[in-house]
Design goal:
The protein is of the alpha+beta class. The chain is 34% helix and 25% strand. Strands 1, 2, 13, 14, 15 and 16 form a 6-stranded antiparallel sheet that branches. Strands 3, 4, 5, 6, 7 and 8 form a 6-stranded mixed sheet that branches. The two termini are 35 Å apart. 33% of the residues are buried. The structure holds adenosine-5'-diphosphate (ADP) and magnesium ion (MG). Adenosine-5'-diphosphate (ADP) binds next to strand 2 and strand 10. Magnesium ion binds next to loops.
Length: 430
């Protein structure tokens, strides 16, 4: 992703058709071009990302087998590192307290989860790179901060690791009144707080820009000398279009050696473009119309709730997508997750009154996210950390994921040693 972020030509060619019809991506790209034209005040770029995966169950020699498949990579506002680290600590504690056996003889372990510490360390890496004493981190937050507890844990953890670093948390919609540039494009808040790092936890969805000054604020931040997490080019590199393009070894090998590309593509799903401007796109479109049972149609959006699944795809393509708009979408192979035996505790569950829950497990499917943080000088990667994970589990049959949206809960990971003839039926119902 860092290589993509640093490759203006590749971003431009890849997003070309999308830019014609998707105002949001097009606005982001215009910001990117305008800061390049003006001359970059800050060449270092940072990103805290999360790569999401699901287990795919498939048949091999008539035997059911499991493999891991990538769902997407989030390049902006990757959330929940605090809750997932805390959940793992809680699960570990409860397992000890109630002496819950996990099958150690089969090599099962609950790995330690460093997600929150890693996110904090990623921010500190970028802060230190800026190198100005007494500067601040600016956390750009949403209007109604449903993520405040995640933010506060990050603040707390940064401050524990580095008491000298201060974080100011300001809503995107309030920045217009308090942010300005200094003589050397330093970013100042309240005229006297110099910002070393802008950490975007907002600004990923078109609806985030529905107040008058939104784009001028984004441009102001991007023009500034502060390091951005993510920088605008990193933000663009998270476009789902790249997942479809990197499906081709030709594209993937632009950025990786053939052997690394081969390893990486083992976790990729199949993708199809459906854009009207190319023969491949036309082929993909026909597949979407006639054979979409095991496919997902994804628009160029972040944040859940926009995907179209299976048999809903053909009517949607027929009725709601014009020829030009087709370039905004990609088709993806459906990941066939096995059903796990587990319990999902939702906000309206009254567990203490319902003992039957103990004996009736839910059938869940899970998504695993692996956090990463990257710092680059715009050419080479200087820091590349991977640590910590998020497991989100939702009821089988629910298409959309998402904890904040109310569909999923946070869980922990159990690793099993496949070489020890593990009995997966202990964990899965099919
Ligand atoms: P975003 O989070 O940006 O909306 P995702 O690609 O993560 O987009 O899709 C949202 C949810 O839809 C995922 O969390 C997952 O539960 C489900 N999903 C996405 N792609 C697939 C797929 N190929 N197979 C099965 N489920 C999927
Ligand atoms: Mg997602």
């Amino acid at each position: 992703m860092c290589e993509i972020a640093n490759d203006y030509d590749y971003i431009k060619t890849s997003l070309n058709e999308i830019l014609k019809v998707d105002d949001f991506t097009s606005n982001l790209f215009k910001v990117y071009e305008s800061i390049l034209k003006e001359g970059l005040a800050q060449k270092n770029i940072a990103c805290i990302n999360r790569s999401d995966y699901m287990i795919d169950s498939y048949l091999e020699d008539n035997k059911s087998s499991f493999r891991i498949r990538q769902v997407e990579i989030n390049a902006i506002a990757s959330s929940m590192s605090a809750h997932s680290q805390n959940t793992q600590l809680m699960h570990n504690y409860l397992m000890t307290k109630y002496r819950v056996p996990i099958d150690k003889s089969k090599g099962a372990t609950i790995p330690k989860n460093d997600a929150l510490n890693m996110v904090a360390q990623g921010l500190i890496d970028a802060y230190d790179k800026y190198g100005v004493l007494d500067s601040y981190i600016l956390l750009v937050s949403e209007e109604r901060s449903s993520n405040f507890s995640d933010f506060l844990y990050i603040e707390l953890t940064v401050s524990k690791m580095r008491p000298d670093i201060r974080i100011v948390r300001i809503r995107f919609c309030d920045l217009h009144d308090v942010a300005q540039l200094g003589p050397n494009k330093e970013l100042f808040i309240d005229k006297n707080k110099e910002i070393a790092l802008v950490y975007f936890r907002y600004g990923y969805d078109p609806s985030n820009y529905n107040f008058g000054a939104a784009w001028s604020v984004r441009i102001l931040l991007e023009r500034s000398k502060a390091i951005k997490c993510p920088s605008i080019n990193f933000h663009l590199s998270g476009a789902k279009k790249f997942q479809q393009l990197l499906n081709s070894s030709l594209d993937l090998e632009k950025f990786l050696s053939a052997s690394d590309a081969k390893k990486l593509s083992q976790v990729f799903c199949k993708f199809w473009s459906i854009e009207a401007s190319s023969p491949e796109g036309e082929k993909g479109f026909q597949i979407g119309l006639s054979n979409a049972k095991n496919l997902v149609l994804k628009p160029q959006r972040e944040g859940g709730g926009h995907n179209i699944f299976g048999n809903d795809i053909a009517p949607f393509l027929n009725q709601q997508v014009s020829q030009e708009e087709r370039s905004q979408y990609i088709l993806m192979e459906l990941i066939n997750s096995p059903k796990e035996k587990n319990w999902l505790l939702l906000h309206d569950d009254n567990v203490s009154d319902d003992k039957s829950r103990l004996y009736n497990y839910d059938e869940l499917v899970s998504e695993l996210g692996i956090y990463g943080s990257v710092l680059s000088d715009g050419r080479l990667i200087e820091r590349n950390r991977a640590a910590g994970y998020l497991v989100r589990s939702k009821k089988f049959g629910t298409n959309e994921g998402g904890v904040a949206t109310g569909y999923a809960g946070i869980s922990s990971l159990v690793l099993l040693d496949q070489s020890r003839d593990t009995d997966f039926s202990l964990y899965f119902t099919d």
